[in-house]
Amino acid sequence: MKHVVSYSGGLGSFAAALKVKRRHGEATLIFTDTKTEDPDLYRFIHESASKLGFRLDILADGRDIWQVFEDVRFQGNSRIDPCSRVLKRELFRKHMEATYTPEDTVLYFGIDDREAHRMVSIRKNWEPWRTEAPLCDEPMSREQILDELDTLGVEPPSLYELGFPHNNCGGFCVKTGQKQMKLLLEKLPERYAWHEERQERLFEKIGKRHGFIRRTTDGVMAYLSLKEFRELIERGGKAEGWVEEGCGCFV
Asked: I need a labelling partner for 33 at 20 to 30 A (CA). Which of 44, 69, 85, 104 fits?
């Protein structure tokens, strides 16, 4: 059997790859590049793949998420995600169909026992491939994963050190909550400004302003743009909601 790990650049997918190594000895790691990633992610995926002794394949459409939004004339949100559909799922599936056969290939995801419900959709959406989530069967705590990285001599991705719960899209995601957007604004203001400028450009191109940051005031929900949210925080407003663990790109 051939073993393929969907390698996101986060701690979960690393732990899944580690489990596959211990169970089967070999695997291929596949990373889908949104061109919106944190620079340190590339260091991490190359170093960790090398230490595991696995081949690393990087797939890229060539566009970043805002270029996709411009091309489809629609901004992604918590319900509809053309960014991950185009830059991750479709690209990954096309590669799988061209390179591997379902009869002799197992596809692994870094879903853990807290997210086991996501595997229902993943299994359905990735038929006829056999899909597995090693961390659902043998969970690992973040401390255990960090210990494994330390043993290998690999520094964890820098976004975790800044307080981000995942290493996707440079700390940005159209599916996330206000607290993560505030964290991005505080920790990586230049990156936030880049996304804000790209969103304003998108609004101008499609002729419609509609943010993805949901906020309820006096019982009324509104969708704020990145510019509006930044101005709210700068006026002393509080970030509501949550810091999302992950965006669920492969669901």
From this structure: 104
